[in-house]
Design a protein that fits this description.
Blueprint: E1 4-7, H1 8-16, E2 24-32, E3 38-46, E4 50-56, E5 59-74, E6 77-82, E7 87-93, E8 97-103, E9 108-115, H2 118-124, E10 138-142, H3 145-155, H4 162-187, H5 203-210, H6 217-224, H7 228-239, H8 243-261, H9 266-272, H10 278-289, H11 293-297
Parallel strand pairs: 1-4
Antiparallel strand pairs: 2-3, 3-9, 4-8, 5-6, 5-7, 5-8, 5-9, 7-10
Helix pairs in contact: 3-4
Length: 298
C-alpha cells in the first residue's frame, strides 16, 4: 500500500490555508485561544493514504472523537480507535516522542482536539509532579452528552465579534474542565504505580541535553559516552527512527522555531544547523516542510 509522507507542520499549514484538497476534504479549523488553550476540530475525509509525523515534547492532549475512526502512532505503538457512538481519547506523552497521524483512503473522522491543561496543572503541582497522568500513554472513555454538546458548539463557527470570541473561549474552558473532571473521576479510587522519570535522567533526556543543531552522529555518541552502534540501536528502539532521521527532525524543528521566534537571519540559522551554504539549508528546509525559510521569516 502506497503511503504519502508529510511533515505534520506542513499538513497543518495546508489544512489551515485550505490547500489540502489533494490529501483530504472537509472542514477543519485551528484556534489558538487567548487563554493559552489550543483547540482544533472538524470533519476530514481522506482522499489518499497518508502519514504525517513530528517529534513532540511532553504534552497532554484530549481528543473527542464524534464519528469515524482515529488512527495514530506514538513511536512504534499504533492505535486505531473507532468512535463507537462517541469516544474520549486522552494522550499523555511524558518524553520526547515521534507522533504520527495516519489517514487511510476512504476513512473519515469528526473530532475536536484540545490542549492546554498544563498551564493549570503545573501551578497546582509545582515541579510537574503528577505521576498518574503518565501511567498510561493513551486512555479511552465513552463520551457523555455534556462533552458531545460542548464539542458540537465548537464545531459551529463562532460569530465574528468580540462576543463570539468570548463565547468560544468560555466554551473551550468548560470543555477542558469537563474533560479533566472525567480524568480525575477515573483515577480517584485506583492505586497508582510510580511512573516518574528516573532522577538519573532517561536516555531521551540525556540525548536532548547534549543535542545541538549542528552536531554530528559521532560527536553525539562521544558526548553520551557510548558507541555509534549503541546510539543507533537506542534511538531506533525508542522512536523507530535511525539516528540520521532523528537528527533531521530535530534540526528542522529548531530551524522552524528560530525562523518564527528569533531575530537570527536565515544565514545565521543555516550556519547554526551545520550548513556551510544557505542554498543547501534552503533546499533541505523546503524538502522537509514544502515551503522555504523566506516564506516563514517574511
Amino acid at each position: 500500500m502506497q503511503i504519502e509522507q508529510l511533515n505534520s507542520e506542513q499538513f497543518i499549514q495546508l489544512v489551515h490555508n485550505n490547500q489540502s484538497e489533494e490529501w483530504v476534504e472537509g472542514n477543519y479549523s485551528f484556534s489558538p485561544l487567548r487563554s493559552g488553550i489550543h483547540i482544533h476540530g472538524g470533519t476530514l475525509y481522506a482522499r489518499k493514504n497518508m502519514r504525517s509525523s513530528q517529534l513532540v515534547d511532553s504534552y497532554i492532549n484530549f481528543i473527542i472523537l464524534l464519528e469515524g475512526t482515529l488512527r495514530f502512532s506514538i513511536n512504534q505503538d499504533n492505535y486505531t480507535i473507532p468512535a463507537n457512538n462517541g469516544s474520549i481519547v486522552m494522550v499523555s506523552i511524558q518524553e520526547e516522542s515521534l507522533f504520527s497521524r495516519h489517514l487511510i483512503e476512504g476513512d473519515y473522522c469528526q473530532k475536536v482536539a484540545i490542549k492546554g491543561i498544563e498551564k493549570w496543572l503545573y501551578d497546582y503541582y509545582p515541579g510537574k509532579n503528577y505521576p498518574t497522568i503518565f501511567e498510561d500513554t493513551v486512555r479511552i472513555w465513552q463520551m457523555d452528552e455534556t462533552i458531545r454538546t460542548l464539542s458540537k458548539q465548537f464545531l459551529a463557527l463562532p460569530e465574528n465579534s468580540i462576543y463570539g470570541q468570548l463565547c468560544q473561549e468560555a466554551n473551550a474552558l468548560q470543555l477542558l474542565a469537563s474533560l479533566w473532571q472525567i480524568f480525575e473521576s477515573q483515577i480517584k479510587n485506583t492505586s497508582h504505580k510510580n511512573t516518574l522519570i528516573n532522577p538519573a535522567k532517561s536516555f531521551i533526556q540525556q540525548i536532548n541535553q547534549v543535542f545541538t543543531p549542528n552536531i554530528q552522529v559521532s560527536d553525539l555518541a562521544t558526548r553520551l559516552n557510548i558507541s555509534e552502534r549503541t546510539l543507533q540501536r537506542r534511538v531506533k528502539a525508542h522512536f523507530g527512527l535511525c539516528i540520521s532521521e532523528w537528527l533531521k527532525h530535530k534540526k528542522m524543528k529548531y530551524a522552524l522555531h528560530a525562523l518564527k521566534h528569533s531575530n537570527l537571519s536565515i544565514g545565521e540559522i543555516s550556519y547554526a544547523c551545520g550548513y556551510k551554504h544557505v542554498s543547501n539549508f534552503t533546499q533541505a528546509f523546503k524538502q522537509y516542510f514544502h515551503y522555504t525559510p523566506t516564506e516563514v521569516k517574511y
